[in-house]
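Usage example:
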Amino acid sequence: MSFKRTIWIGLLLLTMISLVLAGCARATEEPVAPPPEDTEPAPPPTEAPPAEPKIITIAWTQEPDTLNQAYSAMWYSWATTAVWHCWPWQYDENNEPYPHMLTEMPTVSADGLVITMNLRDDITWSDGTPITADDFVFTHEMIINPANAVDSTYPYDYFEISAPDAQTVVMTFEEPFTPWMSNLWQGVLKPKHVLQPVFDSEGTLDEAEWNLAPTVSCGPFVFDEWESGSFIRFVKNENYWGGEPKLDAVVFQFVPDDAAQTAAALAGDVDIAFWPPYEDIPAFRDAGLNIVTQASGYNEGWYFNMREMASPGVKDLVVRKAIAMSLDRASNTAIRLGVVKPVKTFFDAIPAFVDPTLEPWPYDPEAAKQLLEDAGYVDSDGDGIREDLDGNPLTLTQGNTTKEERLNYQAVAQQQLLEVGIDLQILSYDADILFGSFSDAGPAAIGDLDIMQWSDAPAFPDPDTDYWLCSEMPSEEYPWGYNYFFCDETLDALFKKQLVTVDADERAAVFHEISRYMHENVYWLGIWEDPDVWIVNPRLSGYLFSGVTPFFNIMDWDVVE
Amino acid sequence: MSRYIARRLLQAIPLLIIISILIFVLLRSSGDPLATMGGRRVTRPDDRARLARVLGLDQPIYMQYIYWLIGNDWVMIDVDGDGVPETQGSRRGVLRGDFGNSLVTRGKSAVEIITERLPNTLMLMIPTEIIILTISLSIGIYSALRQYSILDQVVTAGSFIGYSMPIFFIALASMYLFAVNFRKWGLPYLPTVGMFDPKVGKTTSQIIWHMVLPILSMSVISISGYSRYIRSQMLEVISQDYIRTAYAKGLSERMVLIGHALKNASIPIVTLIGIDIPFLLGGAVVTETIFGWPGMGRLFIDHLSRYDVPVVMGILMLISIAVVISQLLTDLVYGWLDPRIRYD
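Running the assembly step on the lines above writes:
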């Protein structure tokens, strides 16, 4: 056989293999046939042609790991649940809760130990089986059962559950658990009639098919197909107890690259893009796409490390106040194209829990310089950097992840602090390194950084957070602690107090005290609000977003070509 | 020949075991898969300890490797954390075909996850490799035969430009030009992302249509590099005495070039192709990420970022085996291309 022939046969074989692979691809739907070329006049229509299916595509930059929320830690999995699953209560576009599967919002006993839910009597799974209190009891049992390797049993291991009747669920806690509304039953309900037989036969739900293909669910849409790496499609739930959705299908298409997501939105290949880079906002505006921002509780902020290994300067309140007054956060926000605004406290997205008398730190470099001068920080050697009374330069280390916006802001902050004589040494790390545990020598955990920047939220829309608890300080004995900052007994006591303060007004008052105390001590410095940003193609109508359950009104979404 | 092949395959076994140990230790030392399992909160210590027991991550690394290799169905495991092993292990180990379940997509085996993605990658990479080789050979041979011609100069300049551009730039630029702007300008346009349009379905035409931009992006750089390499190899060979002899014997130019010159120039090229082939299985991380192609490259990155040992080990061992086999095949092709090489 000649070499030439061998080459051609080889190429032919490879081509055939690749075509066979492409051809073997399972057709998930019949392709839309092109209109036939008419050779004769068409007869007059006798009936209206079938309507085009109303399908929307949402770009999703991360692929969910599973759809069973007990086994998932991913926001990108959890956020889909409002589409295909049901929550006892949901949150509207103002992030206000409203009963969804319940006749009213759960009632809490005066001592805060008993929470009771009354279910509607018309709610059903997508296969028509009624949803009852037994499903809630079963879900609780499955989450706390050690045979199931769920991600977290929190907070289901805090309470016992009972079902006095088919429509009543009673949860009894050993001590009050005030942030229950933000932590319970968020897309985790499991159909007992589907999963109990699986558990009985396999002894665990770890490998249940339902985890990846929940064909029985209780939302406006129901699972249809998951093409690994490509998309998940949910189709209209014909048995939905809440009415008939206007859309026929919702597709979450996985687009891992931000720039590609922007291109897909601009090209109209996807109807919705989520959390694009701020610098792409003008392009969306120019293309006539709608930009919707929604507070999600997240704020970009500076966290101060005041543990023993930190630089002396950062432990000095005067220095922290000077930093707060040296950063022009309003101008910085303007850079982000007016999509975000400055924040003053960690709890800004939940105003009821912020002391209303608080004023943000002003941008006043001259006052910052004066503060430092008065405290003895002077530039004695003329290098532009102040020294403390012992002659140590006022040099602080600041670190964050490699996200471009943070890197840009680092450079701006470094320049602004240098103007008042503070030397900021800036560093950046991949997120898994920055947040590595104490035993993995994570820079945040072992205290390598004086100031850290990232975006985070309390248990939104509840203000509860464990961040500053003394019990969460990382150490060799407790390497997973995530209070990388300090232990302040006063603040610790306040955070513990709010957790068991049942009366809503009293709890809000505790948080007013917390917010004031943290603000005055500059324990956390807000840089900018970090809301959810949604880019929406104008062909969609009726859409609203919540910062908690983003697709809470997906029932009302429609396509207006 | 068969003895040579058998010897090479036997030699590969300890090599693969050493590779697997190195990869496993590096992977397990580089991060903690439990760190991201805490839901919206950082993983609680109680949950961390429970998950570590259930997933076998509480064992020393060498025991984890042994379980990965030969399974743990011969030992009892302490799942409930009372210090008394009470549950029979269920993993059979790689040597018995069980790569374990993914730590990310729990409930799904690593093999299942990989086999879902492998055809997608081959679907993209095989045509890409064919196109790269075909065009590179054409350009390289033409440039060698017409050295310093205008077209050779143009191709040379084009090669340098193509080779200088990073793939993410080519990918994004072509996406914006052919998918975004062409649509805006009312021209026929290509899709931006995905392997097919979910609204239409996974049809052959859809897949081919969605392949165009990824293949274009991957081909530009490789064609630029390969064509330069082929050109220089051909230039070297066509100046050899045996080529002159072939012409003197009255052979046609086509016969001389393809039967003698190209065959001899192919030996180093075969080496390059032999190195490329295993990595066809690994996919193209950047291209797959930008174009949302559901291939092995993306799978690897997604699971590596969460330290999903079973899936990442599966992918890396697949590539390792492919490297061993392709190197063996490359050596065999050497023998066919160069009669002086004998393996018996």
